[in-house]
Amino acid sequence: MAARQRPPVLRPRGPHGPARARPRRGVRIPAAARDVLNCSVFFNELVVAYAALLDGTRPEFADPAPYAEFVRLEREALRDEQSVRHFRDLQAELPPPR
Asked: Is the pTM of this model over 0.90?
């Protein structure tokens, strides 16, 4: 019996429909989420989901942290002098606004 064929997980699309000569593969991530932590979480979950798909199971992900926890951590960072200094140094390296 022949193995069951599955469609690809990501189907490349060109600007005008299905890709032909030069397929495009990519994921659009909003600029606000394009940092190391968010990208690493995204790609880790992508690999977990793909592995589960190959195994024929459902992926299992940890529950996201509550928003209140995020706010607590941000407030804690604002009270930490080293953290504040770090972001002031980053801000000083930015070009002036136009």
From this structure: no
